[in-house]
Automatic annotation (TrEMBL):
It comes from Altererythrobacter xiamenensis. This is Crotonobetainyl-CoA:carnitine CoA-transferase CaiB. GO terms for molecular function: transferase activity. Keywords: Transferase. PANTHER family: ALPHA-METHYLACYL-COA RACEMASE, SUCCINYL-COA--D-CITRAMALATE COA-TRANSFERASE. Coiled coil: none annotated. It comes from the Bacteria.
Length: 371
């Protein structure tokens, strides 16, 4: 990002690793913030996660590169006094401090909110954890799937046999990264008005929970828990479902509005089935069976061609390689290539698209002389 980035002039001290914290801070770096990635002597473990590619003349993990581009890397051994003093020096100049350790770790190290606030009174301090800093679960170890399981989300991430399956997206991690970013930006706006910093306790569990309001309404109201079979958005309705094609591929109908049902069933010459699409989820078995038979009659590509002139919420199920090759990716500039050839997923937040380019991926400790 250029010096004109919306967050230019904001300095972030980032002690996070893996996914939620680095995703949050790379979004800040993409908008011009100066993000100091404070790493232990061994580095962020994501550095070692295969596969690797060449970025800016050096080999890097694709995961690490996409979540840490544009940051500076400083090594601090927080078990040593020298490392702690170095971090204190960084805190004196920081606007934002982000950490993702288990609750209590930063206090033992001497860098909890009160300690950092004593160094920089207006600091915006964000802690990202699985279940928050307080409560019975605060010290319970968990990554994304365990959080999804405890929040109820995994119960409706099930197969046809009702068995919950490993989710394809780390939703709790992603929700926490976005919630942390939003919270920090709100706190920075508030600081501009009041001159006061803030402490943010961002839990993956808390961040994920609000996103079930549309599916878990009955449980929220004290009633029964939803199941996939009785939810329009989870597989209980014919027009929000996955169908197999004759070549063993898959397509989806992804729009619940009745206009899409009318358009498709009319095109198929089965207007008599439109009334079934109006029934509640769980009462559309006849229509689902019909559509399964229809979609099994053509290949995925044949259906793509057939739907081209139809106003129906239809999509083929693509793998990631196919998805990244879609013309839409190029049209929107959603993949960018670094000088060394490695590819970055472009930020979804781009105010001046033509001005954005991937920041350099830092080698471990390469910014030592700058700090």
């Amino acid at each position: 990002m250029s010096a004109k980035g919306k967050l230019a002039g904001i300095k972030v001290v980032d002690l996070t690793q893996f996914l939620p914290g680095p995703m949050m801070t790379v979004m800040m770096a993409d908008q011009g913030a100066e993000v100091i990635k404070v790493e232990p002597p061994a580095g962020d473990p994501a550095r070692e996660q295969a596969p690797f590619d060449t970025y800016d003349g050096a080999e890097h993990s694709v995961w690490f590169a996409n979540l840490n581009r544009g940051k500076k890397s400083v090594v601090c051994d927080l078990k040593s006094e020298a490392g702690k003093e170095r971090l204190r020096a960084l805190c004196r100049e920081a606007d934002v401090f982000v950490e993702g350790f288990r609750p209590g770790v930063m206090k033992r190290l001497g860098f909890d909110y009160d300690s950092v606030r004593a160094i920089k009174p207006d600091i915006v301090y964000c802690s990202i954890s699985a279940f928050g800093q307080e409560g019975d679960l605060a010290h319970h170890p968990a990554h994304d799937m365990a959080v999804q399981a405890l929040a109820g989300f995994l119960s409706v991430n099930d197969g046809a046999d009702g068995m919950p399956v490993v989710p394809g997206a780390a939703s709790a991690d992603l929700a926490a990264g976005l919630t942390a970013l939003s919270s920090v930006l709100m706190a920075l706006v508030g600081r501009e008005r009041s001159g006061e910093g803030a402490y943010i306790d961002c839990a993956m569990f808390d961040s994920l929970l609000p996103w079930c309001a549309h599916t878990a309404s009955s449980a929220i109201a004290g009633g029964e828990s939803p199941t996939s079979a009785n939810q329009r958005s989870l597989g209980g309705a014919a027009f929000y479902l996955v169908y197999e094609t004759s070549d063993g591929q898959h397509v989806v109908l992804g729009g619940r509005e009745m206009k899409f049902a009318r358009n498709l069933l009319t095109a198929l010459g089965r207007e008599d089935l439109i009334a079934i699409a109006e029934r509640p989820a769980g009462e559309q078995d006849e229509l689902i069976a019909f559509l399964r038979g229809v979609f099994a009659g053509k290949t995925r590509q044949e259906w793509i061609d057939w739907f081209a002139d139809k106003d129906v919420a239809f999509s083929p199920v693509l793998d990631f390689r196919e998805a990244f090759a879609e013309p839409h990716i190029a049209e929107r500039g959603l993949l960018a290539t670094s000088e060394g050839g490695g590819r970055h997923i472009a930020p979804a937040i781009r105010f001046d698209q033509s001005d954005w380019h991937p920041g350099r991926v830092p080698q471990l400790g390469e910014s030592e002389s700058e700090e």
